[in-house]
Amino acid sequence: MDELLTLIGLVPAGWRLPEAVRVNGWIVTAAVAAVAALTRLLNLSHPRTLMFDEIYYAKDAYALWHNGYESSWSEGADELFATGDVSALTTDPSYIVHPQLGKWLIGLGMEVFGVNSLGWRIVPAIAGILTVIVLTRLTLRLTRSPLLAGLAGLLLAIDGVAITESRIALLDGFIGLFGLLTLYCLVRDRQWSRARLARDLAGTPPNHLAPRAHLRPWLLAAGVCLGLTCSIKWSGLYLLAAVGILVVVWDTLALRRVRAKAWFLEGVIARGFGDFLRLVPVALVVYVAGWCSWFAHDKAYKHGWAATEEATHGSVARSWLPDPLNDLVEYHLTMYDFHVNLSSEHPYMASPFGWLLQLRPTSFYWPDAETLEGTACPTDHCIQAITSIGNIAVWWAALPALVLAVAGLAWRRRDWRVWVPLIAYVGLYLPWFGYLDRTIFTFYTVAFAPAVVLVLTLVLGSASGMLRPVPGGREAREEARLLEGGLIGEGKAHPRGPIAGYLGFGQHPTRLRIPEAWSGVPPWRIHTEGIVLTAVIVAAALVFAALWWPIWTGQTVTYEFWHWHMLLPSWI
After folding, report:
1. Is the N end or the C end of the chain the one with fewer CB atoms within 10 Å?
2. pLDDT digits 0-9 by tens, 201-253
3. Rounded to 5°, angle at Cα 176 from 131 and 33
């Protein structure tokens, strides 16, 4: 059985992560969670007014909790709502173009803390903290290195995109959380299903029929998470498609590795159909369930449309559908029409070509002079600004890391782990290139910001030697051969990749003594130059976070201070 486990890239049966590594993993998880909590909760209620699209989502959230459906507000509602006055709420339905789940979550905070800026921002902030925690645990599962797990969590905890969108009542941060949970469940399913495949085939000869399928609870959980993602915004549909394709590819390659009979047909058709059933219908049920309040209230927008059409015209489109579902389909058609035709100009709209370099960040808050009157100011011109500029040390380093991840890890080394963040790029970033004529913004990157950080972490892990080879892979076999021959090990230099080798690294054994309980690898495997590179990026990210913190949180600064921080003309 151990041979089969190695063939499909798993550790031997009965192996467990060393206790010291597990303990250190929880230590770094707690540490980065504390950093995330500080950066997201500190002075969260500022500003106390509605900013950017809070004018829609916060009020819709309140209406959902109190009317059961999104409702219209009378004139002057924004100013009244900011003071806790909800008297402008009507019972008239409002035409809303996003599903309801995100607004239910935002409204939950107001039910606990009241109608105030803390109330409508607290749940997005908690979601941002949870995203950091999940990324840390996912990275530990992929790398078995507490240092790399802590690195990923820290870089996300101090990223400007993640921070600003955890401190405002928008929907996209929830996509980042549920999308990342999907990736976590995806990794757990890959490990669970392959271990079960090895157990089922243990003792059978090659070219044996593939065993029967199993329930695969982690894949079902991924389907639930994908349904929740789609219940925030429809952009989750692309992630659903991308994840579905990746699962089928992984299942098919697993059957090929164990030399199962008719592995291609079995993987693509039989198992592919099973994967579809575990993902798509589950996600669909979760998505439709998210509209339960809409079904329950006759005054909700488009509710009763089918009955009205039939009474007025004698017939209705899609008459084969039950009226409530037909109403929902019609509502969705109007939503789709809105999304594909949204092309109004906005000063901060940005092409996805510049997203990865943060070329045109979104300004969430810029109050006028009257609003700032009375604010302590050391000069005659002070401002407050909240701009979702990503941590440049992270985002700019992640772009070459993305190239290296695709060329070096995914293509050359066939390392499956890098496909975990890459599939988020495929599902949550690439689809936006199909909507270049739409009004879209750089702040949408918060949905795949964890993937940006994870790609950078995996590449830095490879450069520093802390990313172990995949069991059974070519690199693992070569390392085992060299170790057995005494060519590598304690007191000897560890081999480098082509780029590091060309630059002259790896001529001497490392002098760094990082304990294996923290690095996840023996000390002789550490690459000094990779550790130095990682330290430089982390230091730069910390400095950037400290300097740009006032711009991420709307603190009162001089105009000159703000202008100095606008490094690119496109940031203004």
Report:
1. C
2. 877 877 778 788 788 999 999 999 999 999 999 999 999 999 999 999 999 99
3. 10
The pairs formed by 213-220 with CB atoms below 8 angstroms and a separation of 24 or more are 213/270, 213/271, 213/274, 216/189, 216/192, 216/278, 217/192, 218/185, 218/186, 218/188, 218/189, 218/192, 218/193, 219/185, 219/186, 219/189, 219/193, 219/247, 219/275, 219/278, 219/279, 220/278, 220/282
**Per-residue pLDDT for 192 more than 70?**
yes
Q: List phi, psi (to 5°) of 92.
A: -75, 140
174, 232 Cβ separation under 8 angstroms: yes
Provide CB contacts within 8 A for 527, sequence distance 6+: 463, 464, 465, 494, 496, 500, 505, 506, 510
Length of the chain: 572
Query: 36 near 158, Cβ under 8 Å?
Result: no
Rama region for 337: left / alpha / beta (φ>0; ψ in -120 to 50; rest): alpha
Burial of 312 (0-12, 13-18, 19+ CB in 10 A): exposed
Q: Which residues of 293-304 are buried (b: 16+ CB within 10 A; e: fewer)?
A: bbbebeebbbbe
The one-letter amino acid at 496: R
Alpha-carbon torsion (339, 342, 346, 351), positive or negative: positive
What confidence score (pLDDT) does residue 214 get? Answer: 84
- Residue 315: what pLDDT? 81
pTM of the model: 0.95
DSSP string, 332-393: HHHHHHHHHT-----TT---GGGGGGT-S--EEE---TTTTTT---SSS-EEE-EE----HH
Give the 3-state DSSP-derived string for 12-64, with helices as H, strands as E and coil as C: CCCCCCCHHHHHHHHHHHHHHHHHHHHHHHCCCCCCCCCCCCHHHHHHHHHHH
Q: Are 442 and 358 in contact (CB under 8 A)?
A: yes
Per the listing, tokens 């695709």 go with 406
Look at residue 530 in the predicted model and tell me its pLDDT.
93
Residues 81-90 pLDDT 10s:
999 999 999 9
Q: Tokens in use for 422?
A: 């890459």
pLDDT, one tens digit per residue, over 179-190 is 999 999 999 999
pLDDT, residue 372, reads: 83
Residues of 439-450 as b/e, b for ≥16 C-beta within 10 angstroms?
ebbbbbbbbbbb
CA 4 to chain centre: 33
Alpha-carbon distance values, 417 to 65, 421, 458 (Å): 41, 8, 8
What are the tens digits of pLDDT across the range 315-352? Answer: 888 888 888 899 899 899 988 888 777 767 788 889 99
pLDDT tens per residue across span 39-66: 999 999 999 999 999 999 999 999 999 9
Q: Vertex 250, ends 463 and 229: CA angle to 5°? A: 85
Give the whole-number percent of the chain exceeding pLDDT 70.
99
* Nearest alpha carbon to residue 418 among 353, 467, 474: 467
